[in-house]
Write a structure and sequence with these properties.
Bound molecules: S-adenosylmethionine
Distance between the termini: 30 Å
Radius of gyration: 18 Å
Largest sheet: 7 strands, mixed
Order of helices and strands: HHEHEHEEHEHHEHHHE
Helix content: 25-40%
Length: 272
């Protein structure tokens, strides 16, 4: 999915975000604006954690001394900063949503890694990099905007020899998910598959699947904890509860049907 958000697909483990800031709090707003207001200032926009980013980096293995990294769909930069700190390399943090890019820049400055980070407003389906110019492509919670297969195909030429792609993606843990889980996920991510199907697709497309890793529940808490707190604040400020409930629907769905789906990480290398 890509483009302008609609009220039904503004769920944020699967968001579409417009490039505009939300309206000031005293203005009327549609559901997409409410989504943006609720998501302003969150530390991350998808399940994940510093520990998981570090673990996935370990799973990648050896990289050049100062790897060239692209954080695709970086959001507010939770992975950008960790990657810069742990690798000593250079991270180009790419997103389409300006407020997130500004937050990522502030975060890099606060962490003392601003000189290792370039902030770039660009679309993940038209990344302005030369072929073979990246040692590591990183995409936490963003590849689904293009779709797993399309992302792998579009990004592969950017990798230098020996390079790797790490992404996390929502996927089914069962071939027969509950109607409640399907009703939430399918409209926003109709191509969502199981791990086995994603692994098979990656292998068929010429990738070695070096590792897969199902993100732990605590990584969902890292995302939903701050989101819940933000929704509670907006509720206390008197914003319309029905609209806030709609933003928080993914938290409710997770509580009811979390055994049916996961966020899974993939460490991939192009087969020679
Ligand atoms: C679920 S958020 C994940 C953000 C971040 N990686 C994280 O883990 O917090 C997906 C991100 O992809 C960005 N995005 C959506 N479509 C994009 C596109 N076509 N090109 C670049 N970024 C895009 C959104 O603005 C958002 O920041």
């Amino acid at each position: 999915m890509s483009g302008t958000p609609t009220e039904s697909d503004a769920g944020s483990a699967r968001p579409d975000l417009p490039a505009e800031a939300p309206p000031a709090p005293d203005q009327g707003r549609g559901q997409a604006d409410m989504f943006l207001l609720a998501h302003t200032g969150l530390p991350r926009e998808a399940p994940g954690s510093e520990a998981t980013t570090a673990l996935l980096l370990q799973l990648v293995g050896a990289l050049p001394a100062r790897p060239r990294i692209v954080d695709i769909g970086c959001g507010t930069g939770p992975a950008t900063v960790v990657l810069a700190q742990l690798t000593g390399g250079h991270v180009t943090a790419v997103d389409l949503y300006k407020p997130f890019l500004e937050a990522a820049a502030d975060r890099a400055t606060a962490a003392g890694v601003a000189d290792q980070v370039t902030i770039l407003e660009a679309s993940m389906d038209a990344l302005p990099f030369a072929p073979g110019s990246a040692d590591l492509l990183w995409a936490e919670g963003s590849a689904y905007f293009m779709g797993f297969d399309a992302a792998l195909a579009a990004w592969r030429p950017l990798l230098a020899p020996g390079g790797a792609l790490v992404l996390t993606d929502a996927e089914w843990l069962t071939p027969d998910p509950s109607p409640g889980a399907q009703a939430f996920w399918t409209p926003g991510y109709p191509a969502m598959r199981t791990t086995a199907a994603n692994v098979a697709a990656a292998q068929q497309a010429g990738w070695t699947v070096q590792a897969t890793y199902v993100l732990p529940d605590s990584d969902w808490d890292e995302y939903y904890g701050p989101l819940s707190a933000r929704l509670a604040t907006l509720r206390a400020e008197g914003l319309p509860p029905e609209q806030l409930d709609q933003v928080g629907e993914e938290i409710t769905i997770r509580a009811a049907h979390g055994n049916d789906y996961a966020y899974t990480a993939y460490v991939l290398r192009p087969r020679a």
